[in-house]
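Re: duplicated header lines in exported structure tokens

Our pipeline writes sequence and tokens for each protein into one text file. With two proteins the header for the second block appears twice in some exports. Here is an export where it did not happen, for reference. First protein block:
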Amino acid sequence: MYVPVGDFSHFTSLIMDPTKFPESRPFVDSKASNNIYWNLTCDEVKKVMPNYELSLELIDNNTKNDPTNMFTVTLTKERMLIDGSYFGFPSRCYMPIFADWDN
């Protein structure tokens, strides 16, 4: 999921709070990569990650006053992780939220 840079920055500041991932904190890459990842495989992350459920409210900026254009996306622990081999880094695990630098 790609989100505006401001939202990505806010989200990553919350995620990097040491109380969110006390065992193994993720890293936030720079603008060049715009992603959140762990230097662990997803199987390793699942072992130390609490049973989180991440819910995001998505709003269409052009019609935000219309509640029919609001959507909630919920990611369970299992859906919150992407194997790094998809990005050429098999020893990493990624969170499926990326900064959209074009908007």
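Second protein block, exported in the same file:
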Amino acid sequence: MIRNNDPMKVLFSEHELISKLNEIIPLLDGKWEKEETEYARIAEEIVRFIGEYSDGYHHHKEEEVLFPALVDHPDFLLQGIIDELKEHHENFREYNHEVKEALTEKDFPKAQKVLMKFISELMDHIAIENDELFIMAENLFSEKELEEMYFHFEDIDRELGLEKKKSLEKMTASFTE
């Protein structure tokens, strides 16, 4: 069904953008050996993107709107999956912190190792949400509830900054320039 103001489409679209890191991060492996400054620049931009876009915009929508709505829905019986996904978000925040520390210490092999672990786990996480959770949400919520969720997402984007979000969305192209 084609729906205007579709909150799941927003989340799928953000996942698509975030998933570009899966193409970029492996290409960085060993780059510091010949281009230390360039590796550090790209890795720092990735850390910023993860913190501000993935965690700031995307996870904020899930944790503040989607997850509570699912948990409160009388037909939703999988509280465990929400707990697991929230735990993943916490792990991703910790990985991002570890990468930031490794970059500060110029320990580029460690930064890359953590980035590789992060992207592997992130791709599994995205698959769970795309293939299970978002489909479940589309089936559980009424059109009106989904539209309300969409507008909550819009509020979050406005609150965090629409121009900033657009700038962050363009950032993934700069990782490979």
